[in-house]
Amino acid sequence: MSRSPMIVRTVPALRRTLDGLRARKATIALVPTMGALHDGHVSLVRLAKRRARKVIVSIFVNPAQFAPTEDFGSYPRTWKADVSKLAAEDVDLIWNPDVKVMYPEGFATRIVPEGPAIAGLEDRFRPHFFGGVATVVGKLFTQVRPDFAIFGEKDFQQLRVVAQMAGDLDLGVKVMGSRTVRERDGLAMSSRNVYLTSAERQVAPVLYRAMKESAQRLRAGDDVETAMAGGAELIANAGLVLDYFEARHAETLAPIAAAKDGPVRILVAARLGKTRLIDNIGV
Known about the structure:
Blueprint: E1 6-8, H1 11-23, E2 28-33, H2 39-51, E3 54-59, H3 79-88, E4 93-95, H4 99-102, H5 122-125, H6 129-144, E5 148-152, H7 156-168, E6 174-178, H8 198-203, H9 206-219, H10 224-237, E7 241-249, E8 264-272, E9 275-282
Helix pairs in contact: 6-7, 9-10
């Protein structure tokens, strides 16, 4: 029978617990989440368990990464189900601060990332986003001081931003990416998939099909513009509204002129009804 994880909601309590773990020379892995956990999150936890003796999962819906027009208020919150999932995976601790703990009155310091954070992908459509992510993840790293931090590759630009920040600021944490977990039809698992209607859910896997088609064309020697145009057309014909569909350098996220300039990552963001979907694959 799985045991329930310890649930901690204040910084002093978190530090007392972590000091006890470190006194026993335990390695610590952190899995930052906003809750509404699915099998993709579970895969992050399982990777964390392979890397460290103790696993901490943070659950915090971060208001700093939502614009006023976005879904902070309606973002799915499934606390009891989340705790149950984490108990089944034998997670050691859930760090569940509220907004006043993370951003107390008078909070006035923010991290403003550059490099991969201004690559012209997500930042072009959500200019507020990576500042909010970097600030909250920077706080999580200093609060928990993990040896490892595990992020999903589905949010690939976010992964590159966080890894860059951790290295640039000497935060002493190894940031690791975990492969995207997909439904059987290829749709990347996401907490926001619950927003899709049944009809939209049938259409959504076109993103994955389009990326695979363009990747195949790039590997076959097509030029970047031609390879990407075919995938973009497939997505548009399915009724989605594209924000971007691009081939980029997988490490810097800089634009590439040809597949030989790689390693290459194809990244996409598109709107389907009221839902915004993002995804990516390596070429």
